[in-house]
Amino acid sequence: MLETIDIEDLPRPQKRFAKQFEKVNQERVKEIFAKNYKNHISFAVLIGLVVGIYWYTMYSVKQETFLEEIDEEMAMQNPKTHGHLAKK
Question: Does residue 71 contact residue 85 with C-beta atoms inside 8 Å?
Answer without folding.
Answer: yes
